[in-house]
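Inverse folding, one chain.
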C-alpha cells in the first residue's frame, strides 16, 4: 500500500481504500466521558449495525438497491472507533474508493459518516435505557423521535414553517425524476427547505432542484434533510445533496419524524415504500382526534405517470370510500401549482399552530395511533396475520395496509427480508375480495412499471390471496 496523502488514505486496490478520518460537526469536540461512551457501544449488534450503515454512506451514489450485494462486495470492510485525547477518529479498512477524491474523503461523505456514528450510538444508548424513554407508550415514542431529531440539529430554524417533505420512489423513469427536480426548483425559489428519505430517484430530484432555486435567490441557508433507518440505508444510501442526515432506529420512528417535522408533504410516484408512506399519513389524518390539525398532502407527477395515480386512488377509494379524497390534492404536470399549493398550505399550518400554541418545528398535537408507532417485524407469520378487511375502522385498516407494503419493501430491498423470502418463499397476504382486486392491480402496476427494483428481473416477494380462498 502507498500512502495517498497526509490524511492517511491508502489504496489497497482500484476500488478499496484504508484511511483514518476525524469527525466534523457535533462529534468534533468530545469529552473523555463522551469518547468512552462511544467506545462502549462498539460491540455486539450495535457494532455490526454501525459497520453496515457506514458502508452504505461510503457507497453513496451507487445505482444499486441490492443491500446483500453491497455487503458481499465489501465483506472485509471495517469501521473501527479510535479514541484519542482530542476525541474520536474512525479507521476504515477495505472501504469503497468512490468516497475519496485524490486520496481525501469527500467532505459531504465525511459529514454523513459521522452522522451515522452520532445517531447509531445515540439511539443504542437512549433506547436501551428504559429510564429515558417509555417505548411502550405513545408519548414516550414521540419523545424519543423528538430527541433524536434535536440531537441531529434538525430544528436549527425553529421559527420557520417552510419544510416540504417529499416522498417518492427510488426506482423511477427519467421523466419522473426530471419532474421532481422542477418541483424542487419551484419550492427552492419560494424559500422552502426539502426533506426526503435521502436516497436516489424522487428523493434526490427535489433536493437537486431546490438547490438551484436557493442559489438563484442567493439563499445560502438552504437545508436538505434526509431521514432514513438502518434497514433501508444500504438499499437507498444518502445522496450527495443531503446536508443534515438523521438515522432513526426503525421505519415507524422515521415516518413519525417525517410527519411531525413537516409543514407540507408532497408525494411523487413510487413503489410499495411510497404507498406505505401515503397510507401511514392517511391513517393519521383520518383519525377523529386530528380534525383541525392541518398537514397538506399533495400527490403530483408528470402526465406520463397518471396510471400510477389511477391505481393508487382505486385502492384508497375501495378501502376508505369517497371521503378519503378530502385528505389530499392531486396536481398533474404543473410544478408551479404544486409549489404554490405547498406555500398556501404552509400558511394554514402556521395559523393553526399559532392558534393551538403548538411548536412550528415539531407537531406535538398530532395524534398518531399506537398501531402506527409500534415497530412491525415483517415475518411470514406477521404478514399472513394482517387484517386487510373492510370491517375495520379507517385508521386501523390504513395501519394494516401500511404494514403490508412495509413487508413488501423489506422483501424487496432490506437484507433480512430478502433473506427470509429466499429461505421460506414469498410472503402471503390475505385481503377481502373488495380490497384484493385494487391491491393486486396496484402491485402489478409497480412490477410492470419497474418500480420494485432498480435493476434486473423482479421476482415478487409476496403472494396475494382472497380471504375466501383456502391456504
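Residues assigned per position:
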Amino acid at each position: 500500500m502507498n500512502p495517498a496523502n497526509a490524511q492517511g488514505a491508502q489504496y489497497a486496490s482500484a476500488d478499496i481504500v484504508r484511511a483514518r478520518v476525524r469527525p466534523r460537526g457535533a462529534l468534533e469536540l468530545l469529552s473523555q466521558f463522551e469518547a468512552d461512551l462511544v467506545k462502549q457501544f462498539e460491540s455486539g449488534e450495535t457494532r455490526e449495525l454501525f459497520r453496515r450503515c457506514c458502508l452504505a454512506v461510503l457507497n453513496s451514489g451507487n445505482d444499486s438497491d441490492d443491500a446483500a450485494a453491497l455487503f458481499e462486495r465489501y465483506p472485509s470492510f471495517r469501521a473501527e472507533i479510535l479514541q484519542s485525547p482530542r476525541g474520536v477518529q474512525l479507521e476504515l479498512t477495505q472501504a469503497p474508493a468512490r468516497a475519496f477524491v485524490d486520496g481525501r474523503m469527500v467532505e459531504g461523505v465525511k459529514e454523513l459518516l459521522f452522522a451515522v456514528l452520532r445517531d447509531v450510538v445515540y439511539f443504542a444508548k437512549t433506547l436501551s435505557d428504559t429510564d429515558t424513554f417509555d417505548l411502550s407508550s405513545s408519548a414516550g415514542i414521540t419523545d424519543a423521535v423528538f430527541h433524536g431529531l434535536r440531537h441531529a440539529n434538525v430544528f436549527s430554524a425553529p421559527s420557520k414553517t417552510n419544510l416540504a417533505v417529499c416522498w417518492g420512489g427510488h426506482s423511477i423513469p427519467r421523466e419522473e425524476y426530471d419532474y421532481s427536480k422542477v418541483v424542487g426548483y419551484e419550492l427552492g425559489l419560494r424559500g422552502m427547505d426539502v426533506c426526503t428519505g435521502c436516497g436516489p430517484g424522487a428523493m434526490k430530484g427535489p433536493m437537486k432542484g431546490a438547490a438551484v432555486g436557493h442559489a438563484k435567490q442567493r439563499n445560502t441557508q438552504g437545508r436538505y434533510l434526509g431521514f432514513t433507518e438502518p434497514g433501508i440505508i444500504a438499499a437507498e444510501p444518502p445522496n450527495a445533496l443531503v446536508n443534515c442526515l438523521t438515522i432513526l432506529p426503525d421505519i415507524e420512528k422515521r415516518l413519525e419524524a417525517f410527519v411531525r417535522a413537516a409543514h407540507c408533504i408532497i408525494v411523487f410516484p413510487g413503489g410499495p415504500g411510497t404507498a406505505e408512506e401515503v397510507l401511514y399519513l392517511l391513517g393519521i389524518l383520518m383519525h377523529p382526534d386530528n380534525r383541525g390539525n392541518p398537514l397538506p398532502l399533495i400527490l403530483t407527477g408528470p402526465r406520463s405517470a397518471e396510471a400510477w395515480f389511477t391505481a393508487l386512488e382505486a385502492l384508497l377509494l375501495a378501502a376508505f370510500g369517497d371521503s378519503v379524497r378530502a385528505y389530499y390534492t392531486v396536481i398533474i404536470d404543473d410544478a408551479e401549482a404544486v409549489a404554490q399549493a405547498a406555500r398556501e398550505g404552509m400558511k394554514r399550518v402556521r395559523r393553526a399552530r399559532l392558534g393551538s400554541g403548538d411548536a412550528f418545528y415539531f407537531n406535538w398535537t398530532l395524534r398518531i395511533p399506537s398501531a402506527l408507532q409500534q415497530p412491525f417485524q415483517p415475518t411470514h407469520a406477521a404478514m399472513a396475520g394482517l387484517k386487510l378487511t373492510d370491517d375495520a375502522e379507517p385508521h386501523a385498516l390504513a395501519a394494516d395496509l401500511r404494514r403490508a407494503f412495509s413487508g413488501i419493501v423489506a422483501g424487496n430491498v432490506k437484507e433480512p427480508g430478502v433473506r427470509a423470502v429466499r429461505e421460506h418463499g414469498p410472503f402471503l397476504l390475505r385481503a377481502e375480495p373488495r380490497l384484493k382486486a385494487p391491491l393486486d392491480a396496484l402491485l402489478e402496476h409497480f412490477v410492470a412499471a419497474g418500480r420494485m427494483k432498480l435493476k434486473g428481473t423482479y421476482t415478487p416477494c409476496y403472494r396475494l390471496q382472497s380471504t375466501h380462498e383456502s391456504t
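The longest helix spans residues 107-128. Confidence is low (pLDDT under 50) at residues 1-7.
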